[in-house]
Design goal:
Elements lengths: L17 E2 H8 L11 H11 L3 E4 L8 E11 L4 E3 L8 E3 H8 L10 E6 L4 E5 L3 E3 L11 H11 L3 H15 L5 H5 L14 E2 L5 E2 L8 E2 L18 E2 L2 E5 L5 H17 L3 E2 L5 E4 L5 H12 L8 E5 L7 H12 L3 E4 L10 H14 L6 E2 H4 L11 E9 L9 E8 L7 E8 L11 E3 L2 E3 L1 H14 L5 E7 L6 H19 L7 E7 L26 E3 L9 E6 L11 E8 L5 H11 L14 H18 L13 H6 L9 H4 L6
Parallel strand pairs: 12-14, 13-15, 13-16, 16-17, 19-24, 24-25
Antiparallel strand pairs: 1-8, 2-3, 2-8, 3-6, 4-5, 6-7, 9-26, 10-11, 10-18, 19-20, 20-21, 22-23, 25-28, 26-27, 27-28
């Protein structure tokens, strides 16, 4: 295609300029300036504002700027420091200093001060004399409400996005730019045309006891009407604990409806729980440990705990950490908002989809697997890996987390997961294979052995690995290190065991932010986006390497972003048609919904598992990672401890 100009609109959040006290009120959703802050609030605001530049307002003709490094634990009226100069050695409070030096009486002297400068030579500023400087990008993780607001503000239909791009190109008027003219260039103002094709959706197999035993998704979606899970799980012993304000009668009605839905879909769901209770949110730890003590030695074992979360946010991660890493209890959490009125039927369907795989069931199979039309997997035991690394948000001091999932069954729908912490911001997964004093270890080796010994009785003859989160500049490094780890893991199982490997990188947030617009209405779905299954493997792809763009999902809102698949190594010799069809089909087996998803299910599972592990590290110490420390270089190489998931939890798809 040659040289091209990449033009698009992009959105990023900024800190709201203005009074720091106004920011505090908005942050805590209060109408007036607080007289003081609790320790928890101080750490929350410190986490939110660390690294932000502020300017002072108390000097009439001088405006000085500082970068926030933290918030003091003592208020302005009690925070003491030693004066320099002629009065050196005299201790004075910050509030008194401002009164004497600047003739400024601090109004909110029980609030903490901003800390700026270094630890050895800090500057202390009362919050009320500071304004947040305009034009500062917010690079930390957005909360749910902020995400909703930014999506609402920036979501554009494909037609509108296309118009905005043309408008931007016309405004810039590149062909009149002197730099363009000096080089004798001319820029085409039309979008590049790319050849594409639309893959047929896979046929999905359901249980023969249902009225509909199979289905062919339309526009990337389908429903469970008249269908039963291809393999319904059995749930005999389960419990329910509510930490919300709703009555037990309402919760009992909800659970009965949930049990009925699961049974209608082919599960064996006993509608009588072995334990049913309501506890205040302050007793979450106590309630969970008491339940565990009561049923730890019970026979049969407790299979599932349904938890109704408190109305206040922030407890989900704590519950998951306790149950999955300490007690070994599989959980299904429910939001209390679904109890306020008669819940939507689809909500029960979504819960049933998750519960079935958590108790060992399978929701659906690919028809191609049954008819032996899946490349490689139909002819010999094949294992499919999904791998992802999540990094801490800017300002967080925690480690990066690697997650690897692997298919454990012939039908490619059951995936076991392993998690590992590694140095902050390191992209290469370092725990795929390693030699220890106890012999060979590592995530790939363990998953291969579980496939071989526990699930199939045969070693995989083929390996396919989908790797998420790798940028183009890291391809060679990741490939050489991780392929080497895979080979070593195989040889450690048996000396001559070297199955062929296909290594594919999945890029969803690729640097080009490629968008594909349909040429006419006949090539678009109801949202105006390209049809699910649209593949582009020429014109805009690499001239010599094996890559393709695939939009496997249906657009719901905004403009769909296709996933970019880069095949870095293909020892299995898959053709483009084979790999594209397999990849598209793997987007239809995601257990949590009856829609095709934007990336293959194994990668999606690895992504979910890695973020689940983030809760294990942060739950219970949500604000501790923002403590002030000048030892950045030392902190970057420290690996935070990652609690191990209990074996009985890891046997099921707990991350769904």
């Amino acid at each position: 295609m040659g040289l091209c100009l990449n033009t698009d609109i992009s959105t990023t959040p900024f800190y709201k300029a203005g009074s720091l006290l106004d920011f505090v009120m908005e942050f805590f959703n209060i109408r007036s300036v607080p007289q003081t802050l609790s320790e928890k609030q101080r750490l929350e605001i410190q986490k939110a504002l660390k690294g932000v530049r502020v300017e002072t307002t108390h000097l009439v003709h001088v405006c000085r700027r500082y970068k926030i490094t933290g918030f003091t634990s003592q208020p302005a009226s009690q925070l003491m420091f030693t004066l320099d100069g002629p009065q050196g050695g005299t201790e004075i409070s910050v509030a008194k200093y401002f009164e004497i030096k600047h003739f400024y009486e601090i109004k909110y002297d029980l609030l903490p001060c901003i800390k700026a400068g270094s630890d050895s030579k800090p500057n202390y500023l009362p919050m009320e004399v500071c304004n947040i400087v305009a034009g500062q990008r917010y690079i930390k993780k957005l909360n749910d409400l902020q995400v909703t607001r930014i999506l609402k503000a920036t979501c554009m239909r494909p037609v509108d996005r296309e118009k905005s791009i043309f408008k931007l190109v016309d405004k810039n008027n590149y062909n009149k730019d002197k730099h363009v003219l000096n080089f004798g260039m001319k820029i085409d103002t039309h979008l590049t045309t790319a050849e594409a094709r639309v893959l047929h959706p896979p046929k999905l197999k359901y249980n023969d006891r249902g009225r509909e035993t199979d289905c062919e998704p339309k526009d990337g979606k389908w429903n469970m009407f008249n269908k039963k899970f291809v393999k319904g799980g059995t749930l005999n012993t389960w419990a329910c604990i509510s930490f919300c304000r709703h009555s037990m009668a309402v919760i009992q009605d909800f659970c009965r409806e949930l049990a009925l839905t699961c049974n209608n879909f082919g599960m064996v769901f006993n509608d009588i729980p072995v334990h049913f209770s309501s506890r205040p949110p302050s007793e979450i730890d106590k309630a969970l440990y008491e339940l565990h003590r009561q049923y730890v030695n019970a026979m049969p074992q407790l299979q599932l705990l349904i938890v109704f979360l408190p109305e206040a946010k922030g407890t989900y991660g704590k519950i998951k950490k306790i149950c999955e890493t300490e007690l070994g209890i599989v959980t299904q959490c429910c939001q209390p908002k679904h109890l306020q009125s008669k819940p939507n039927k689809q909500y029960f369907v979504n819960l049933a989809l998750k519960i079935n795989v958590k108790v060992g069931g399978s929701n659906t199979y690919l028809e191609d697997v049954i008819t032996k039309q899946v490349p490689l997997a139909s002819n010999a035991p094949t294992i499919i890996f999904g791998a992802d690394v999540t990094h801490p948000s800017p300002g967080e001091d925690s480690s990066s987390i690697a997650a690897v999932v692997a298919s454990m069954d012939y039908f490619l729908v059951k995936y076991k997961c392993l998690l590992s912490a590694q140095p902050r911001r390191q992209e290469i997964i370092e725990n795929l294979f390693k030699m220890t004093d106890n012999g060979p270890q590592g995530m790939i080796r363990k998953l291969l052995l579980e496939f071989y010994i526990e699930s199939n009785g045969h070693k995989p003859k083929h390996i396919i690995l989908y790797r998420d989160g790798v940028s183009e500049g890291q391809f060679n490094n990741v490939l050489s290190n991780e392929m080497d780890a895979i080979k070593k893991a195989c040889v450690s199982i048996e000396e001559d065991y070297l199955p062929p490997v296909t290594f594919i990188v999945v890029q969803k947030r690729h640097h080009t932010h490629t968008r594909l617009f349909p040429e006419n209405e006949n090539m678009a779905d109801r949202s105006g986006n390209i049809l699910p299954g649209t593949v582009v493997d020429r014109n805009i792809c690499h001239p010599t390497e094996f890559d393709f763009y695939l939009c496997s999902h249906a657009g719901i809102q905004g403009t769909s972003r296709p996933a970019h698949y880069r095949v870095l190594c293909d020892e299995n010799g898959l053709s483009a048609d084979q790999l594209q069809t397999l990849t598209n089909n793997l987007c239809y087996i995601y257990a949590r919904c009856t829609r095709s998803v934007s990336v293959v299910a194994p990668v999606y599972y690895a992504h979910l598992a890695a973020f689940r592990a983030r809760y294990y590290m942060e739950a219970g110490s949500e604000y501790g990672s923002s403590q002030i420390s000048g030892r950045t270089r030392e902190r970057a190489t420290t690996i935070s401890a990652l609690p191990a998931v209990k074996e009985n939890i890891r046997d099921v798809m707990f991350y769904c």
